[in-house]
Amino acid sequence: EPASGEGSPKKASISGTVVQGVNIIELSDKEIILDKGKTKRIKATVNPENATKKSVSWTTSDANIANVSSEGVVTAKNCGECDIICSAMDGSGITAKCHVVIKQLVTNIKLSETKIVLPSGNTQIITATISPVDATSKEVTWVSSNKNIATVSPTGVITAKNGGDCVITCKTKDGSEKSATVSMHVPTFSVQKTDYTVTSKKG
User: Fold this and answer.
1) How buried is residue 102: exposed, middle or buried, by Cβ count under 10 Å (0-12/13-18/19+)?
2) Which of 8, 39, 133, 195 has a 20 to 30 Å separation from 158 between CA atoms?
């Protein structure tokens, strides 16, 4: 549903010419979510169609968060929220606004380990360092390529199960699709059979 600002139709007569005022502005978006550094254009439709002057101006409630061009192009500058206001320039006072949310995507994940050798039954914690430090969401998921060999908890605790190799993957949840992996090896121990000869001595 488009965002809109409404008002009562205004008509005035100037030197015998009827002037039709703007009574509504409809925007293409009510809310937009942008990644830091990205741009998006908001389109404005001015009604009624026979409005004498359809020109509009664009302003932002916080230029530190996002700015907007005279054509309605929004540029995301810093994380946060603000409003973009579109105003009729015919003196009618009609406006419409679009709420803007700016987020910072994760650019890199660095794990505390990249290769692990862990005997069956043992555990090890892997920590993930997210960049940049001002990333909006630092949530990650952990997945094992083979749970029969090793499992991993939602907090990065790896538990070795059975002998073999698998890969533990840590992946972002913010849509950036960033990931990092740990190569996991669980040693297979073989038990050697030894023959013993027992000699009993009578006497």
Assistant:
1) buried
2) 133
